[in-house]
Amino acid sequence: xxxxxxxxxxxxxxxxxxxxxxxxxxxxxRIVWSQVAP
Length: 38
Fold this sequence. Notes:
There is one protein chain. By secondary structure, this protein is mostly helical. The protein is 58% helix and 0% strand. The protein has one helix and no strands. It has one helix at 15-36. The longest helix has 22 residues, at 15-36. It is rod-shaped, with a radius of gyration of 17 Å. The model has no long low-confidence stretch (mean pLDDT 83).
């Protein structure tokens, strides 16, 4: 993204993507649980 030819060392960190995925999973679980729980 810096004008280079896809340098493998220029890959962005993956921790933030996993953090977003985990957050969405937690939100989905809470929504489903609130729907199922009495």
